[in-house]
Amino acid sequence: MARLVIITHEFDAFAYRDQAAGEWTSPYMLWDILKHLAGMGHQCRITAGANAHEGEVALLHVDASLVSEDYLALASNFEATINFAAKDITKKRISTLRLSLEEHDDWTGPVIVKSNLNSEGKPEAAHNRIAQRRNRPLPHPGVKRTPYRILDSKDDVESAVWYDPSLIVERFITEPDISGGFAFRTWVFMGSHERCTRFVGPKPIGKAGDAVKHEPVEVPTELRSERERLGFDFGKFDWIMHDGRAVLIDANRTPGTARSIEGFMSAGSRNLAEGLDGLIRERLSKCPKAGPLRSLARQ
């Protein structure tokens, strides 16, 4: 089988040892997927930093909104790659709700001010803290965590915000549920394997850990088009239904697992591992350098 190399950032905390359980664990969804993949016969190696490693296939798992060129350049060392096309998940790249002073927009509803970085810039801020502790140069100079702010209208947005390249202003929309709460949906996918779920929770900005109920739903065509546009092989899309259409809210190439629904998420890991196995076989079968490994696609 193939040797799969997981490329993580030099300062990513991909895995840690749980002292109480006496074993290694990870906050990332990929961790359970890799355990299943190893059971299928593949060799999986997790690496940190933009360094070359031996293997046939590389999976990009750098937890940063914008992947730097030194990590992307590693692709040339491998016969096949996974998720290297999903290099930019900044809000300005993925957003279909963005407002601008330069463009006429008749939106009169509430707005949300966000960091242009994914997850409020928390991953980049974490990288900087680790680098500082190790007396290393900051990988993301000037970056800080920027919590969401919801305002009544775009007229309430300070002038400086509109001209700050680190921020983005979006229309704030929700999906109310008949229970009185709010619905939010997640689509998790790896290659051709997927899971799409509608959660309901008490907050307008939903988190799976706060959900009081969930159910499977279909993936709309427009989301599949967004996945293709953004170049994702593996990831999680957060979305809602609004005025009869699917609206992408967030795209994440390094999804985590909320502890409160860890059992539910882990139960789907085998399915996603089968999707990763299929991706490996497909990519190697199309690679002219693969040689004997091309037979993986026929096994």
Describe the structure.
By secondary structure, the chain is an alpha+beta fold. The protein has two domains: 3-85 and 261-298, no CATH class; 91-120 and 148-256, D-amino Acid Aminotransferase, Chain A, domain 1, CATH 3.30.470. Helix content is 22%, strand content 26%. It has eight helices and 15 strands. The strands form four sheets. Strands 10, 11, 12, 13, 14 and 15 form a six-stranded antiparallel β-sheet that branches. The radius of gyration is 20 Å and the shape is globular. The chain starts with a strand and ends in a 14-residue tail after the last helix.
Radius of gyration of CA atoms, rounded to a whole number: 20 Å
Helix content: 10-25%
Helix/strand-derived class? alpha+beta
The fraction of residues assigned to DSSP E strands is 25-35%
**Extended strand count:** 15
Termini separation: 10 Å
Overall pLDDT metric:
91
Report the oligomer: single chain
The 3D shape can be described as globular
Largest sheet: 6 strands, antiparallel
Run of helices and strands: EEEHEEHEHEHEHEEEEEHEEHH
Instruction: Enumerate the spans where pLDDT stays under 50 for 5 or more consecutive residues.
Output: 291-299
